[in-house]
Amino acid sequence: MPRIIMVATTMTTEAAAAWLYRLMAWLSPAYPVGAFSYSHGLEWAVEQRLVGDRSSLEDWLDDVLRHGGGRIDAILCAHAYAAAALGDRPTLVGLRDLGEALAPTRELALETLSQGEAFRTTTLAAWPDLERLAELLPDRLPAYPIAVGAAAAVAAIPMLPALEAYLHAFVANLTSAGVRLIPLGQTDGQRIVANLEPVCVEMAEAARLAPLDDLGTATLMVDWCSMRHETQYTRLFRS
């Protein structure tokens, strides 16, 4: 796998505005990847009263970011970015397979692969200048962070902002799920997003330099909740 190399660049205001616009568009709740339909096992956690208020939801998401899917996604996104920046298609295809293999449950695999393919398809249709993305990610479901990382590299978006934006979108989506499930007020939801800002920044910086050997999780309760959600009688979410 490629080493992640940071390159110092000088960027004009116009260029910065262009990549920032794309980053905001791609990771907006309005981008049609279907993120709103997934809860990452949170629905069963609420059903079992493992999560039931603002504090417990914030603690749950903090753990997912530091020790679970958020951390895994950030590392995969960083390595996909590095491979795409080098035009290294074999490595990117290997990362695609790794991203699929790392999904611990059927529903979490559906979550990342469906969003990844929706992101790839939509981005290629809306931004035809990124046709190189189609060459690097051939037709097969890529995990969501791999699709985002590769697209960010092809679009010359700096890696660290891309990682931070990805993790923010991850947190914002699961917070929104929690607001609907618990339920919580919108202001409490935004307090959670604000309080987790330094965690997202920390994990993005760590992922930027992390080797693939650092991949691993310690959130067995999330995996268990995802497994139990597969047979939950009444469900709002697909995971």
Tell me about this structure.
- With 239 residues, this protein is mostly helical.
- It has a domain at 50-215: Orthogonal Bundle (Urease accessory protein UreF).
- The protein has twelve helices and no strands.
- It has helices spanning 13-26, 42-47, 54-67, 69-85, 89-101, 106-126, 132-136, 144-154, 159-181, 186-195, 197-209, 220-229.
- Helix 6 packs parallel to helix 8.
- The model is unreliable at 5-10 (pLDDT under 50).
- Its main location: cytoplasm.
- It is found in: Cytoplasm.
- Pfam families: UreF.
Summarize this entry quickly.
This protein has helices spanning 13-26, 42-47, 54-67, 69-85, 89-101, 106-126, 132-136, 144-154, 159-181, 186-195, 197-209, 220-229. The protein has 239 residues and is an all-alpha fold.
Write the layout of secondary structure elements.
Elements: H1 13-26, H2 42-47, H3 54-67, H4 69-85, H5 89-101, H6 106-126, H7 132-136, H8 144-154, H9 159-181, H10 186-195, H11 197-209, H12 220-229
Helix pairs in contact: 3-4, 3-9, 3-10, 4-5, 4-8, 4-9, 4-11, 6-8, 8-9, 9-10, 9-11
